[in-house]
Amino acid sequence: MKTVRKIILYVFLLLAGILIGGQIMLSMVKRASGAIFASQMGGSTKMGALIHAINTKYVDYVDVDSIVDMALPTILEELDPHSAYYPAQETQDSNDELHGSFSGIGIQFSVQDDTVRVNSVIHGGPSEKVGILAGDRIVTIDDSVFAGKGIPSNDIVKHLKGPKGTTVKVGIKRAGEPGLIDFQIVRGDIPVKSVDAVYMIDKEVGYIMINKFGENTYFEMLTGLAKLSSEGMKKLIIDLRSNQGGYLGAAIQMANEFLPKNDLIVYTEGVHSPQARQYADGYGHYRDIPMAVLIDESTASAAEIFSGAMQDNDRATIVGRRSFGKGLVQEPIEFSDGSSIRITIARYYTPSGRCIQKPYGESDEDYAMDIVKRYERGEFFSADSIRQNEAEAYTTKSGRTVYGGGGITPDIFVPSDTTGYSEYHTTVVRKNLVNRFSFKLVDDNRQELSSIKTVDGLVAWLDRRHTLEDFYRYAQENGVVRDRSMSAAAGKQMRTTVYCNVIYDAMDMEQYIEFLNREDTAIKAAVDALSE
């Protein structure tokens, strides 16, 4: 970590180097209503004089906003890897994700063969209310044509999203209809789910997958737990793989549901942030249910807080691979133009006292490449390859040794399974042939598929049609020759990939995950751990 003096010196050098730095700082001060940056820069008399002199005397006019957008990321990079600047659109997108909703028309779409195709319509959303159907093609948006080569998906999103209550006109091409059908859609609030799947793995084990920690995560989880309880759940798996975190408060709420009274959940502390400790209040309804938590190298931040609380209190078995290692807490500061910064204000510590933040500061490249380096040294495949910092040893409530300084190491290690992947698989996925094939298959059979209500029913339908053989022929027609030397594992993986895409297009995310999990080695390890 560089000192504040060095950061201020860096800012001065940056200002001098581009000749208009005073205006950058002045713009920053104005955008933050004056107080934030002026106080954090220490109220320097020299800084104030420099700002004033350049603002009143500099020879040329400068587009300050564009310079600020370029300079802020560089300045914040000097602090730590997670203090960052976000332009207005990125700020809005991030807020939408964590707030749990955004304003739009309520569809999921993809661009296939230069056409915007509606993959699914969100239940209860604005599009369903006016009669948009899965399989419809969007040809025009507000009388502008959106069919043809080179349609950027973000342009489509930009035209379909908008303030709640506003209207967008779309021209739809529907199978069997001779011309375009015009729909006037009043935009509304579209929920952004943080719980992707809730279902029973067997008669006793319930499963919940959580993709982020947002404002509604705790309530979505409670709804899922109630559903599982009504179906006979006696044990629980919570899947946090690829969950990159979100709100600290959501992780605390969630952990509280599973811990007895006065168990420490997490504490935070920083130079300007006094230590704050969060304890369980004892009112959680699932304090005694046997649990396993799944993590991997993409599990980060708030997801690590929850996992650490469960591990350090010996409350759940942690299964998978070592987590990312983000132990820093950011506070957002928004500007009047919609852009924002997120600045690190504290470190968080698990109940045993460990900070799981992995090392940073010596090389930005080393930090960014950490996951790749883990893979290269074999950590994805062998627990013996995990590098533990012996100086960061701590103990759980029962006396088990755990380590800080680089993510959360699982209690049960599950290696990454790459035996089923092949060059053929990589090629057809990269060429988008799987997505195109599955969408066409579903699109051509929507009426028949609408009567199939279960994953098992859809899998049986796919088997009867010899769908995998159909895909191989489709891929060959599109330039990828079938590899008949593929191993049995590779053939099985190819089937899983094709079937998963069809299930997602014909049903939803939950059914997709349910099928994918059937061959998941981490799920099997978690079920075995819960049975002991």
Q: How would you explain this protein's 3D organization?
A:
The chain is 40% helix and 20% strand. The protein is of the alpha+beta class and 532 residues long. A hairpin with a 4-residue loop joins β10 and β11 (205-210). α10 runs parallel beside α11. It is globular, with a radius of gyration of 26 Å.
What are the defining features of this structure?
single chain; alpha+beta; six-stranded mixed beta sheet; disordered N terminus
Number of strands: 21
Mean pLDDT: 86
For the largest beta-sheet, the strand count, sense and barrel status come to: 6 strands, antiparallel
Give the radius of gyration: 26 Å
Q: Tell me roughly what share of residues is in helical segments.
A: 40-55%
Morphology: globular
Give the SSE map.
Layout: H1 4-18, H2 21-31, H3 35-40, H4 45-57, H5 64-77, E1 84-86, H6 88-99, E2 101-104, E3 107-112, E4 115-121, H7 126-130, E5 137-141, E6 144-145, H8 153-160, E7 167-173, E8 181-186, E9 188-191, E10 195-200, E11 205-210, H9 217-230, E12 235-239, H10 248-256, E13 264-270, E14 273-279, E15 291-295, H11 302-312, E16 317-320, E17 328-334, E18 340-349, H12 364-368, H13 370-376, E19 393-395, E20 401-403, E21 412-413, H14 423-430, H15 433-444, H16 446-449, H17 455-464, H18 467-477, H19 488-506, H20 509-516, H21 521-531
Parallel strand pairs: 11-12, 12-15, 15-16, 16-21
Antiparallel strand pairs: 1-18, 2-9, 3-4, 4-5, 5-6, 5-7, 7-8, 10-11, 13-14, 13-18, 17-18, 19-20
Helix pairs in contact: 2-4, 2-5, 10-11, 15-19, 19-20
